[in-house]
Specification:
about 675 residues, mainly alpha, elongated, disordered C terminus, SRP72, ribosome binding, signal recognition particle, endoplasmic reticulum, 7S RNA binding
């Protein structure tokens, strides 16, 4: 005779649906504790017990029950274990369970693939999450009712996160714009708005958020409490968009409309409270700093994504600096960044370095600030944020050569280390882009090509064929194509081949590869010619005859560079030809003085100053004396040199003149 506990459990499981999960848990527990069941009945009871605990959100208890059951239960409940680990925030443990089950193989693992997609999404591996959702979308066999809508929601969320990470290249072109179906549900409309926010297009994002809010308020699938819960992230995002658009009154109204007591997710509550700090930070930074320290701590699976955590930390750094907490911020930066043996390019560490530099100089700028920060960089040579701050200050004071020299010294030190970690930092896309921008500002095109070629060669040596390697390879190939040197063209072709190995349909890479090998290796070009658009399609609608008649349009050079002799006139004639065509200008008649006498010979000394002319006679006694002493028209004094006795040197004396000049005559007495 069957055990009563087993009979009750089987009767419950035969029902079409089970709403009372507590009852299922009670019956399954009683069946497990019964000593009369073995084999399949015991395994079924344990499985039911685990599922009931998951339905009741008792994830830790579910993991404990699975562990108590041994290897057999863990094998039967691999899906439940992975889901429980995901809900408790143990993403690495969930990934390990999923890898053991072989989630990437077979079509019978549909449920595990959904969990794998969620785990990858929360672990910020959005490329993998998007790939899993696309596989599930394309594989309709075994799909459940309504699953297509859920997959669309999850896929658009993964695409939005990819663009927030700056990986727009990882999103297919057909998924970058919202489809008509995306505007029919508030979840997909919200995700489409997030995609536009990641691009900085806040106007379109505002329209889509309003659409999402209207759909959420009008839906009949949710009760009032569920609507309030779903509306909170939409309102928070709307307030953020209004703030970015400068509509501060609308943003404040939405923030006040959010009841934080209705917010169940700690991460959403933290974001809402942080956004409300903006008006207080501008009015009184000390109050804002106190409120920022009172934000709740986020734990477990309900955590912020990396870009959100970075923004939150950036806000705290700014508030601390506004509250003049310079010494504490500088000490924190020095303590954390001095330990780095390899430069850390994470957003949090770079921004901490920037905040530490601002605190060390008390928010000062200019050349004296640079002199103050350079010794600090010698103490913390691996502080990338401090390095970028100094370079930015050099750019602000228009002193680019020292900025380039500083960056090149940093690169040289990384190359001398000769380790894979230092090499990845040396050729990080952001630092390479900074070097290229500085070189271009100084018109150093050869250095630009060398920098991009070295970066592309480094990332080609990695197994990764996408991400940083693809982006740098694309830019390097485009830049190297501007050169006519065969080695540069060959390097450009290798860069484009590297891209096509990972992204066969990349049109830019295809066209670049054809342009690179068109004159050197036709065998590499021929397979891609069919994929390029024909010339007739590119020139369709172009009137060649009208272009020939219109001539070649030339840009007018600046006025300082224009030459009258070579300047092209609108009618096609040069300046000398135009001067020949124009009539000679009438010469002006010279004006003569009123008292001019043509018979009288002009004075030859008329060009000399008045006092240099021979007819000049000074007035007064002092003037006559100066005239006599002058060499021109006056008496030249005669001097002789007398040698002193004893070889003490010589002295010049004036010769005594005899007669003339009235020197020996007595002075006449004046009248009494």
């Amino acid at each position: 005779m069957a055990d009563p506990a087993i009979a009750a459990l089987n009767s419950l499981l035969r029902e079409a649906s089970i709403d009372d999960h507590a009852e299922a848990l009670e019956l399954a527990t009683a069946a497990v504790r019964s000593n009369k069941i073995q084999g399949p009945d015991l395994a079924n009871a344990r499985h039911t017990r685990v599922v009931a605990l998951l339905k009741l959100d008792r994830y830790d208890d579910a993991l404990r029950v699975i562990a108590e059951g041994g290897d057999a239960v863990e094998k039967d409940c691999s899906f439940e274990k992975a889901y429980a680990l995901y809900k408790t925030g143990d993403l690495e443990g969930a990934e390990a369970v999923l890898q053991e089950t072989g989630v990437d193989t077979g079509k019978s693992q549909r449920g595990l693939k959904h969990v794998a997609g969620q785990v990858a999404y929360r672990n910020e591996k959005f490329e993998r999450a998007a790939a899993i959702y696309r596989d599930l979308r394309d594989d309709t066999e075994g799909a459940n009712y309504g699953e297509e809508n859920d997959l669309r929601i999850n896929l658009t969320a993964a695409d939005a996160q990819l663009q927030w990470q700056g990986k727009e290249w990882a999103v297919p072109e057909e998924e970058k714009q919202p489809a008509r179906e995306d505007l029919e549900a508030f979840e997909t409309a919200y995700n489409a708005a997030c995609i536009y926010i990641s691009r900085g297009d806040y106007t379109k994002a505002s329209v889509l958020l309003k659409r999402s809010r209207d759909l959420c308020e009008a839906t009949e699938d949710l009760d009032e409490e569920e609507k309030k819960t779903e509306l909170v992230p939409i309102l928070v995002q709307q307030a953020y968009v209004f703030t970015k658009l400068g509509k501060l009154d609308e943003a404040l109204s939405l923030q006040n409309a959010i009841n934080l007591s209705d917010v169940s997710e700690t991460s959403t509550k933290v974001i809402a409270q942080t956004n409300k700090l903006l008006p207080k930070a501008t009015e009184n930074p000390f109050i804002a700093e106190r409120l920022a320290r009172a934000l709740p701590e986020i734990t477990g699976n309900d955590r912020l994504f990396e870009f959100q955590s970075a923004a939150l930390q950036r806000n705290k750094n700014i508030i601390d600096l506004q509250a003049q907490k310079f010494e504490g911020k500088e000490n924190t930066a020095s303590r954390l960044l001095s330990k780095n043996q390899v430069p850390d390019l994470s957003v949090s560490k770079v921004e901490l370095g920037v905040a530490g530099a601002a605190a060390a100089t008390k928010l000062a700028v200019g050349k004296p600030t640079v002199r103050e920060l350079l010794p600090l960089l010698e103490k913390r040579p691996n502080d990338v944020g401090l390095l970028l701050t100094i370079i930015q200050l050099y750019v602000q004071i228009s002193t680019l050569p020292p900025a380039i020299l500083l960056l090149e010294k940093f690169f040289a030190r990384l190359e001398e280390a000769n380790t894979p970690e230092h090499a990845d930092v040396r050729f990080a896309p952001g630092l390479v882009a900074l070097a290229v921008s500085l070189y271009r500002s100084q018109n150093r095109q050869k250095d630009v090509r060398n920098e991009l070629a070295k970066a592309a060669a480094h990332w080609r040596s990695k197994t990764e064929s996408s991400g940083a390697g693809a982006s740098i390879a694309r830019e390097a190939g485009i830049e190297l194509l501007r050169s006519s040197h065969p080695s540069d063209l060959a390097a450009a072709g290798e860069a484009f081949e590297h891209i096509l190995s990972a992204q066969p349909g990349d049109r830019t890479a295809t066209a670049g590869l054809v342009a690179s090998y068109a004159t050197t290796d036709f065998s590499k070009v021929e397979p891609y010619l069919a994929s390029l658009p024909p010339v007739e399609k590119l020139t369709q609608g172009v009137d060649v005859n009208s272009l020939i008649e219109a001539g070649v349009a030339l840009l007018t050079p600046p006025a300082s560079q224009q030459s009258k002799k070579r300047k092209l006139e609108e009618d096609g004639t040069t300046a000398p030809e135009k001067e020949k065509q124009q009539p000679a200008k009438k010469q002006r008649k010279r004006k003569l003085p009123k008292n001019y006498d043509p018979t009288k010979k002009p004075d030859p000394e008329r060009w000399l100053p008045l006092r240099d002319r021979s007819t000049y006679r000074p007035k007064g006694k002092k003037g006559k004396k100066r005239a006599q002493e002058a060499t021109q028209g006056g008496v030249v004094k005669e001097e002789e040199t007398l040698e002193l006795a004893g070889g003490a040197g010589s002295v010049k004396v004036e010769k005594a003149g005899g007669g003339g000049g009235g020197a020996n005559k007595k002075k006449k007495k004046g009248k009494k």
